[in-house]
C-alpha cells in the first residue's frame, strides 16, 4: 500500500470569493466612474451652490439699502463685490474693497449662462426689494457641465431650482 504525504490544502473558501467579488463590483459601479469621468452631479452641485450664493447676496442687498452687492460671472468663475452706492436697480460708484467678498472658480468645464442674452459674462445686481437686475422671470440662468440644469427667478425675486 502506498502512503502519500499529507499536503496542506491552499485556496480560498466560497464565502471569501463571493465577498471579494461583491466588494469589487461595488467599487466598479460606484467609485470608478467618478474617478474617470466628470459626473453630471457637478451641474446640480454648482446650481445649488450658486442659488445659495444668490440668496445670500439678495439678503445682504435687502438688509443694506445704502450699499450695493453684485455677483459678476465670467467664463472661469464668479465673484461677489460690494459697491458704495446704487441707483434703483444697478450698482454704481466704486467697489468698497479691491478684493471681492467671495470668489469661486468653475471646475471641469462648467459654466453659467444668462439665458436672456446667452452670455457667459454677466453681472447680477439686486434692488432694495430683492429683485434681480437684469429683470428676469422664469428660467434665467443655465448651469452647464456634463448635464444642463436651470435656475429660475420669479418677478418678485424668489430664486429657485427648476
UniProtKB/TrEMBL annotation:
Membrane-spanning parts: 12-36
Gene3D superfamilies: Glycoprotein, Type 4 Pilin (3.30.700.10)
Cross-referenced PROSITE patterns: PROKAR_NTER_METHYL
Keywords: Membrane, Transmembrane, Transmembrane helix
This protein's record includes keyword Membrane: yes
Superkingdom of the organism of origin: Bacteria
Protein's recorded name: MSHA biogenesis protein MshC
Amino acid at each position: 500500500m502506498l502512503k502519500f504525504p499529507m499536503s496542506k490544502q491552499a485556496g480560498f473558501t466560497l464565502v471569501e470569493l463571493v465577498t471579494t467579488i461583491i466588494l469589487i463590483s461595488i467599487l466598479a459601479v460606484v467609485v470608478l466612474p467618478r474617478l474617470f469621468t466628470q459626473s453630471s452631479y457637478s451641474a446640480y452641485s454648482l446650481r445649488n451652490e450658486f442659488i445659495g450664493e444668490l440668496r445670500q447676496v439678495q439678503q445682504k442687498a435687502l438688509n443694506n439699502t445704502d450699499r450695493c452687492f453684485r455677483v459678476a460671472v465670467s467664463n472661469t468663475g464668479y465673484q461677489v463685490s460690494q459697491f458704495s452706492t446704487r441707483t434703483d436697480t444697478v450698482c454704481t460708484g466704486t467697489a468698497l474693497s479691491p478684493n471681492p467678498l467671495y470668489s469661486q472658480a468653475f471646475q471641469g468645464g462648467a459654466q453659467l449662462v444668462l439665458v436672456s442674452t446667452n452670455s457667459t459674462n454677466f453681472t447680477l445686481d439686486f434692488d432694495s426689494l430683492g429683485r434681480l437686475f437684469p429683470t428676469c422671470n422664469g428660467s434665467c440662468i443655465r448651469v452647464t457641465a456634463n448635464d444642463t440644469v436651470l435656475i429660475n427667478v420669479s418677478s418678485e425675486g424668489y430664486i429657485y431650482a427648476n
